[in-house]
């Protein structure tokens, strides 16, 4: 396990300490749980990807050929 130090404003540190006491865990354990939840790695449910499946190309090979399709369609001179 790796130790990491973070800096928090006093108000945030107080809230974190109070929440850790309320849950009966250390501040370190609360931070560990919060990071896992934020990264979608905690719990038994798979991470929800909000944009997945919102469009359909109508073709079954789109995901497989995504890089090739992007190379053919992407205009590198276009401003981003």
Approximately what portion of the residues adopt beta-strand conformation?
Answer: under 5%
Radius of gyration: 21 Å
Q: How many structural domains?
A: 1
Shape: elongated
Largest sheet: none
Mean pLDDT: 84
Structural class: mainly alpha
Catalogue the unreliable spans. none
Helicity, as a percent range: 40-55%
Strand segment tally: 0
What's the N-to-C terminus distance? 40 Å
In short:
The chain has helices spanning 10-23, 27-38, 66-73.
Structure description:
The protein has 80 residues and is mainly α. The chain has one domain (10-73). It contains three helices and no strands. It is elongated and about 55 Å long.
Secondary structure elements and pairings:
Blueprint: H1 10-23, H2 27-38, H3 66-73
Helix pairs in contact: 1-2
